[in-house]
Amino acid sequence: MDDKPMPPMSRLDRLAARASARVRPLALRSDAREPRTSALAPRSSARLPRLTALAPRSSARALWLAALLAASTSPVLAQDDEPTETFDESDPGDSGEDIDVSDWALPRVLVVVGPRLHQAVASQVNDVLRGVAEIVDGRSYVRRAQREGLRPTSDTAYEQLLAEEDVALVIELQPGRLRFIPTVRTIYREGRNGFVLLEEQHPLSGLRLLGAERRRIADEVRLALAVTTRPSGGPPGPGESSLPRELRRPADEERPRDEATPGRVIEVELAVGGGIGTRSFSLPTQAGQLRLGTTPFPAARLDAGLHIRPSAASRLRAGFSLSYSTSVGLRTTDYRIDGSERETASRSQRLDAAVELDVRLGRERGSAALAVALGWSLRRFSSEAPVTLPDFGLGGPRLALGVVVPLFDGRLRVGLVPDLQLLVRVSDPLQAEGIRTPGVAVGGEATVAVALTDAFLVRLAYRESHALLSSERAEGSRDIERYLALQLVYAP
């Protein structure tokens, strides 16, 4: 009877066969002890870790990853012939000599935490990774994706932004549920273009990651690093992957692609700081000219802003801002008509609220922008003890038009924004002294901001404003305020 021809082996079967010839057999131990694997990779070598054991729960994934490991260390042959092993007697690893490991480094692993995962769980995963890999905080990557209008965990965001991180592996952490048991989903991605290598779930006990699950995560990280370790010859070029083209995970094709269309970008800004300020005021009365002057006093300033850009590439940005400045421990001197002086505790305040529109003048993101703001400003002065000059307030609509110029790839920003205010609100004590409305206030603000990190800046701001009010008498009234503040800005 004739023998039936054997069916041709699939590519994955051939890879698995080659893996079994190149990697020592995996021993499935009943006590599930931690496998002895090495995640250390020298910068100048492309050696991959040797796998000695594997926990039973990861055996199916391990066989697939072992196949990738075997194929990534040698070219995939079109024939079924076994490759010929060659040994270099000059290799120091085979000569028995000591190997200098001073320049060895842990592979870099980017940890991206999903928005709904508790921080305590992410901290436990980071504890597992310490000693296995160099952990790269994913918050900077998340901020860059949000500024581009992309969802950080989407395939589109990984493909466009991951190359700048220079990592060997990406571990994405997401909350999950297995029936009624909460879990943490660990998604392992290739560190260049974000191809999915492995996806597992690990049960939680409340918010605790048990010891067995910690060992499983360590096993999975070592196996994924064995596949993604880049071969010698330098890192891949832009748009290339460290994996062979035929090994971009067959299981990845079964996973639906997570596209993310660039959408609107929401920018939040919070700033707090302090500095110095001065305030002077003159008021004509029937008895003569009243004057109030201050020496430089400590001042505090708080700013908040929310802006929306239709897309990261859009030239327009719209939003609103709020700014509040106040004196701290201000002492003023009341110069009376009879020539006497009186010192008292006082407070100088300013509040600005505005709707803003920024227009980028060029297509590049580092281009200068035209800043337009329309809002309402209120300035107020009050004293704790009665003085000759009554407490007063001035307010009205304000129009600002200026320019903001980014320098040195956006690390330094210089702004100059003059403004003009129409004073339509004058307190009753000033009206009783013959002050008329409307008045005007001319001023502006100059700023210099230096980026410390992706989320924090240091900003130096100087504001000056001269309010001019007409009076029934020959001379009008003046109110001059100056503020200089150094602020720490948080702009995620």
Written overview of the protein:
With 492 residues, the chain is α+β, with helices and mostly antiparallel strands. Helix content is 17%, strand content 42%. It has helices at 11-22, 59-73, 119-129, 139-147, 155-161, 211-228, 250-254, 428-432, and strands at 27-28, 41-42, 53-54, 104-105, 108-113, 134-137, 169-178, 181-190, 196-203, 265-284, 289-294, 297-309, 316-327, 330-335, 341-360, 369-383, 392-407, 412-423, 425-426, 439-451, 456-469, 477-490. The strands form 4 sheets. Strands 10, 11, 12, 13, 14, 15, 16, 17, 18, 19, 20, 21 and 22 form a 13-stranded antiparallel beta sheet that branches. The protein has a 5-stranded mixed beta sheet with strand order 6-5-7-8-9. A two-stranded parallel ribbon has the order 1-3. Strand 8 and strand 9 (196-203) form a beta hairpin. The longest helix has 18 residues, at 211-228. 29% of the residues are buried. Mean pLDDT is 76; it is low at 19-60, 71-87, 89-97, 231-235 and 245-253.
Q: Can you summarize this structure?
A:
This protein is of the alpha+beta class.
Report the top-level CATH class of the largest domain.
Mainly Beta
Number of domains: 2
Instruction: Say how many strands there are.
Output: 22
- Helix share, percent: 10-25%
The SSE string, one letter per element, is HEEEHEEHEHHEEEHHEEEEEEEEEEHEEE
What is the CATH H-level superfamily of the largest domain?
OMPT-like
Q: How far from one another are the termini?
A: 76 Å
Q: Round the Cα radius of gyration to an integer and report it.
A: 34 Å
* Main β sheet profile: 13 strands, antiparallel
* Corresponding CATH architecture of the largest domain: Beta Barrel
Q: Given the structure, what is the number of helices?
A: 8
Weakly predicted, low-confidence segments: 19-60, 71-87, 89-97, 231-235, 245-253
What would the principal axes of the Cα set say about the shape? elongated
User: What class would the helix/strand composition place it in?
Assistant: alpha+beta
CATH topology of the largest domain, by name, is: Lipocalin
